[in-house]
């Protein structure tokens, strides 16, 4: 299975303090994950140019072919990126938000040495109309740099639910600075209902036959609510889990797939052993929800449970980025050994 998200793989075994964390899963329902991050709409933005100018485009939906079409005509008076040479090499890029992982980007050709590029190109998306209407179109203009250091020139965001679909004419729109909602990934991806528990080594007493020789973290994935509906029939979802920094197969677990349901019930328990109490400060449980299809899986949202310090065993890592809610949930588990801690946490772009 491949996943349309970038992988962040932290090779911790190069360092001395390698925790030996194993895992097993209990199939109260049925449990692979990627330390993944949906590629940003603004990945590769190295420019500091103020947005200016206008873009001319038209939108249409082809009912027969079930195809959304963005006719990009031209731009005028774009910002100059290379002031010494007085040039910009612009192109136009589109995303459907918030589902940028599934639909991917579309972009025009690059027009060199002009701030008034003419494209006359159609960017196409195969998508059901009812699914399209819960999306937003993000159309942005960029300067193309040979070394990949592309510069943002401006954007426009269109709420497709309120768009006048009888309007098929080309119209001019002013380019705006980046919207905070897109930059920060503020969008509703659903909520995950789960419980976690830490069992310290030897804490159950010598007479207990299930007393773990090393500590255990138990993760009970109960259900998820309000997932993004990617198809009219719903979504075929499953949950993946890793305990970072371990990205080996021992750390990799997943639930079974629940089909055609935006509120799937998993009722699945995962147990990771090999934990010492001090490991809880440096480890991070990453749970991600994915839509399953034959050729590829699509990222829907996730959470990271940890202390959110940005450090793991003294090394700076970008995945130790838990939100306040996620940190509080993890801290409560650390302070209440052998007790199930229940939580309802919002899914986010990781």
Tags for this model:
single chain; mainly beta; Immunoglobulin-like; four-stranded antiparallel β-sheet; neurexin family protein binding; SYTL1-5_C2B; Synaptotagmin-like protein 2; membrane; repeat
Description:
It is a single chain. This protein has two domains: 39-174, Sandwich (Immunoglobulin-like), CATH 2.60.40.150; 190-347, C2 domain (Immunoglobulin-like, Sandwich). Helices cover 7% and strands 39% of the residues. The chain has four helices and 21 strands. The protein has helices at residues 100-103, 129-132, 180-184, 324-335, and strands spanning 6-7, 22-26, 36-37, 54-62, 67-76, 90-97, 106-107, 118-126, 136-143, 151-159, 171-174, 191-199, 215-225, 237-244, 253-254, 265-275, 284-292, 297-305, 311-312, 315-316, 341-346. The strands form six sheets. The protein has a five-stranded antiparallel sheet, with helices on one face. Strands 8-5-4-11 form a four-stranded antiparallel sheet, with no helix packed on it. Strands 7-6-9-10 form a four-stranded antiparallel sheet, with no helix packed on it. Residues 1-20, 26-43 and 180-186 have low confidence and may be disordered. Pfam families: C2.
Summarize the helices and strands and which ones pair or pack.
Elements: E1 6-7, E2 22-26, E3 36-37, E4 54-62, E5 67-76, E6 90-97, H1 100-103, E7 106-107, E8 118-126, H2 129-132, E9 136-143, E10 151-159, E11 171-174, H3 180-184, E12 191-199, E13 215-225, E14 237-244, E15 253-254, E16 265-275, E17 284-292, E18 297-305, E19 311-312, E20 315-316, H4 324-335, E21 341-346
């Amino acid at each position: 299975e491949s996943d349309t998200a970038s992988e962040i793989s932290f090779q911790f075994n190069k360092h001395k303090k390698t925790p030996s964390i194993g895992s097993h899963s209990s199939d109260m329902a049925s449990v692979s994950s990627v330390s993944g991050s949906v590629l940003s709409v603004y990945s590769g933005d190295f420019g500091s140019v103020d947005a200016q100018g206008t873009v001319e485009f038209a939108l249409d939906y082809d009912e027969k072919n079930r195809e959304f079409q963005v006719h990009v005509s031209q731009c005028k008076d774009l910002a100059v990126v290379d002031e010494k040479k007085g040039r910009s090499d612009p192109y136009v890029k589109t995303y459907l938000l918030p589902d940028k992982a599934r639909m991917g980007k579309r972009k025009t050709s690059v027009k060199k040495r002009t701030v008034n590029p003419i494209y006359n190109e159609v960017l196409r998306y195969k998508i059901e109309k009812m699914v399209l209407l819960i999306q937003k179109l993000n159309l942005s203009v960029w300067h193309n740099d040979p070394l990949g250091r592309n510069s943002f020139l401006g954007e426009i965001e269109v709420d497709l639910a309120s768009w006048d679909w009888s309007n098929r004419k080309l119209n001019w729109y002013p380019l705006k600075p980046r919207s905070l909602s897109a930059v920060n990934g503020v969008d509703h991806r659903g909520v995950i209902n789960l419980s976690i528990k830490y069992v310290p080594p030897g804490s159950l007493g010598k007479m207990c036959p299930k007393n773990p020789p090393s500590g255990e973290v138990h993760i009970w994935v109960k259900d998820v609510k309000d997932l993004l509906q990617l198809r009219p029939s719903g979504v075929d979802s499953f949950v993946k889990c890793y305990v970072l920094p371990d990205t080996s197969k021992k750390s990799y677990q997943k639930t079974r797939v629940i089909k055609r349901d935006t509120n799937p019930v998993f009722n699945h328990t995962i147990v990771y052993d090999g934990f010492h109490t001090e490991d809880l400060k440096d480890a991070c449980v990453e749970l991600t929800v994915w839509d399953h299809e034959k050729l590829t899986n699509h990222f829907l949202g996730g959470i990271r449970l940890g202390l959110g310090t940005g450090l793991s065993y003294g090394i700076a890592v970008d995945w130790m980025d838990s939100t306040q809610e996620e940190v509080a949930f993890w801290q409560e588990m650390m302070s209440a050994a052998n007790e199930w801690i229940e939580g309802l946490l919002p899914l986010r772009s990781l």
